[in-house]
Amino acid sequence: MDLKTYLLSMSFSKLFKIFKFSVVSKTFRPLHGDYKSSVFFILLTIYSIIICGLAGLRCIYTFTDTNVKLMETVFAALIVQGFGQTIVKNLCGLPFQREFEYLVDWIEELNAKVEDNELIRGILEEELARSKKYSLIFLECVSLMFFICGILTTYNWLSNDYICIIIPNLPRDTYPVIYNIVQLTGLYIAAFSIIISDLAIVFIGFYLMGFMMFTNKLIQSHTDIENLQKCPDLLMHIMQNHLEIIRILGIFNEAVKLTSFLQLLFSTFTFLTLIFGIQMFKGELIMYFGFATLMIQLALLCLFGQMIRSQTEEIFINLYLTNWYELSLKEQKTIQMMMVNSCEPIGLKAAGMYDITLMSLIQILKLSVSYSAIIIAFTRD
Questions:
Q1: Alpha-carbon dihedral angle through residues 286, 289, 291, 296, given to the nearest 10 degrees
Q2: What phi, psi does 350 have (nearest 5°)?
Q3: Which of 291, 293, 48 is nearest to 146 (CA)?
């Protein structure tokens, strides 16, 4: 069975175990008594800090050795940025253990929820199935991209004898095998850490989006008299879901506000390094795959911010398009209250201040291209 077939056949319970495992990487604390995962990620972080330090030494060594290969310096800078980003992003999850744990429980309860009404149950099951499908597609695509990057990087480093780290008191010419083992091990640990760390945010994001789409479909169903006959208390369900959306979005925003800010910040520097590498080494395929992988990683975060904002705007529009004028005064006041709460769109905010949308991705790319052009100009001079 290939990876795609296995992932598509994966049940929610198996996917949920992977999700809980990924959440532990964000907080380092046991989730529902999972101490083994907590210890695993603590040790992984310690090893990552060591690799990041060794690659940092390689970057510093560049200034004292005129014979150093420029490509080695570029790879060393990418290692520092990649490990640094993952370490800092995960450490930023430490203060938000309660929020992440609450979101995990909310997703589990949402999937275990059994609706008595056939109309509501059908729409909910459809959106939950879609959320699971998109989570699996993300896991498959990102795993494949990082796997290809890992294979290409391994081949590139070994065939060109690139050494991107410096181990104190251990000459690279005398112990090349040890250097290759350490840096290649670090490479695959970095890829694994990034995939697992991002999966926690992506999984929550997809299920949050699914719940918002579920609510929007309920609002749209309210315009159909036949649906109102099937579910007389449909408006009450809509109001409860709307309040739930506002509450969960607040918790999600609180949990990822520092992580999203650091993602944008580190991605700017990493894009800058990759664009510089592409311009200087146009024949290196690994640079293009690295750029594409980072683009997917950042684009997903920006896409979530854009879609969450769009869905909250759509709630207001859908409420306005209901046949509110045919409802009782009490029901009209309920819709009016929901519309007032939906006037201001809710989206992801980096550090609680900066909106995360697709425009953020464009601005980061423009900034990276501009500064890389300046660096290239100075390098060639």
A1: -160
A2: -70, 130
A3: 293
